[in-house]
Amino acid sequence: MSENMLEVTNLCISFGGLRAVDGLNMKIRKGQLYGLIGPNGAGKTTVFNMLTGVYKPTSGKIMLDGENITGKPSIAINRAGIARTFQNIRLFKNMSVLDNVKAGLHNHMKYTTIEGILRLPRYFKEEKRATEKAMELLKVFELDGEAQQLAANLPYGKQRKLEIARALATDPKLLLLDEPAAGMNPNETEELMQTIHFVRDSFKMTILLIEHDMKLVSGICEELTVLNFGQELAQGETSAVLNDPKVITAYLGE
Amino acid sequence: MKKLNISKTSRSNFITYGMVIVLAALMMILDGAGVLSSSMRGFLVPMCIYIIMAVSLNLVVGILGELSLGHAGFMCIGAYTSAVFSKCMVDTITFAPLRFTIAILIGAACAAVFGVLIGIPVLRLKGDYLAIVTLAFGEIIKNICNVINLGVDSAGMHISFDKASDLNLAEDGQIIIKGSQGISGTPKDSTFLVGVILVMITLVVILNLINSRTGRAIMSIRDNRIAAQSIGIDVTKYKLMVFTISAAFAGAAGALYAHNYATLTATGDKFNYNASIMILVYVVLGGIGNIRGSIIATIILYILPEKLRFLKDYRMLVYAIVLILVMLYNWSPKMQEYREVLRLKLKAKFGKLNKEESIT
Asked: What fold, for A4-81+172-252?
């Protein structure tokens, strides 16, 4: 077991002639809150898509807790221990809040389809256990009151929280948050920062997040990587990186 | 009472089961009392057949969220394979219930195999494209069944796609499928009771499936495929599973159909896309994803055209208008608003009753 949860070496992807991500190196220690920032179109979400198997990297290597997961399909990567949220929220809108989280527990429920159809004892036992676990998770995000509501009917901020709860239900080692504060007002962002901290501490989670909100980034990230046009612009401790003249130029222009 | 232990969904399921049982019992009593007209009696088995079809199609359309227009094709496979079996075995297995049970299982199994075969290439397609391929599949099956000749003699099976005389059967040979004239002389094993039992099996399997881990996985694929993959749900496996289960039930319905009439042919509009679309109409009007709705819609819409016979030439016109009105009633925002107001009014009136309900 290495001390790094995630090690990305020389990661590249090209779409036709476009090098969307070019030679990214990143090391995230266990339990770290790591930020991936950069101007629009820098390739941040593309990195996430490669980490979660949506895209296959053209070259490079991704190691999760000592296991090579480069180019594996999404399902295998989730089972290996990466869960994510999405920039544009992707909830199961026509399912209840509780069922969204229980869907996340899918691979942790040990009964077969046949047992489910025949309603054998294991079905009831496992469903009960899953419901309890899901309610626990919902309580963490203060969503337990809305458990029976349709996910689509939740207000925006709570939908973001539900997505995190669903990702955590898969029991990951590494949680990827894609712009968790997008579209939130300052109060909600403040609350979200506390939630992320809480998740890291109570679940002993390693978290990698993409964010535009500098307040959130400087508030909670311990280390940062800055991407610009698919290339690494700067890397290191948050305060140092944010004061780097190269980074300021990339964000604000000359 | 143990009311508190029962979740909302299982209570809703039991209402559905109860509704079917009560309706079936009512029909049997009426039938026993001799009140039913002969035409109504003739509707009983087909009604069961189309309820099974609608419920199993709803699994694909409503729960998986994919549009399939070839459902009657699976029914056709089930009908033909089970009829061939019954006709071959009519002298070997004389105990009718056993023979019929095996026939239904064979019909379901063959349809399921085709469900897998069509499922594998089709899984790459979505939406309209999937609809077109399934529609084509249904037509292909129907047309093959229309031209196939099958005979059995001491030398074994003979198949021809041209004329029955090409089979070159020996003296003791027997023609089983005779081209477009289909299969005649299938034992008439289908009864209303068998139909109701099959409907109940379909309901129990599909409703239990929906309310399990598997059902949640299927619905998560419907709601958001990428998110479903991101939480480790095997999209391919569950899509294929839904196609197979749905096809198997359509096959069982086909077996019921084949054993309800003296002759089985694939001509006319029993197995073509019209039939598939008619079943889709039941599903859509009953409410996509709503199993109980599918049952109610099937019953009403199956009887309606017959009850409208007195309108003569205007029959289908009125039928179409009714379809449009039901659609508006179910889905137009104004009507939904109106129904919500109505619901609140009723709630105010019977406030106590509803409060009790909301606890459970």
From this structure: Rossmann fold (3.40.50)
Residue A225 and residue A208 in contact, taking contact as beta carbons nearer than 8 Å: no
- Tell me: the pLDDT tens digits for A167-196? 999 999 999 999 988 888 888 888 888 889
If you measure CA to CA, which chain A residue comes closest to B9? A148
Q: Which residues of chain A are at the B interface, by a Cβ-Cβ cutoff of 8 Å?
A: 52, 54, 73-75, 78-79, 83-84, 86, 90-95, 99, 102-104, 106-107, 109, 111, 113, 116-119, 123, 126-127, 130, 148, 166-167, 169-170
- B226 and chain A: CB distance < 8 Å anywhere? yes
Query: What are the backbone dihedrals phi and psi of residue A201, each rounded to the nearest 5 degrees, phi first?
Result: -70, -45
Which among A75, A90, A113 is the nearest to B224, CB-wise? A90
Record the tokens describing residue B231, joined without a space.
Answer: 């939480």
Strands A82-84 and A174-178, sheet pairing:
parallel
3-state secondary structure of A239: helix
- Quick one: residue A230, left, alpha or beta (phi over 0 = left, psi -120 to 50 = alpha)? left
| Structural domains of chain B sorted by starting position, each given as residue range(s) with its CATH number in brackets | 2-146+185-359 (1.10.3470)
Per-residue pLDDT reduced to its tens digit, B214-249: 999 999 999 999 999 999 999 999 999 999 999 999
Chain B residues within 8 A of A106 when measuring between CB atoms: 213, 216-217, 220, 231-233
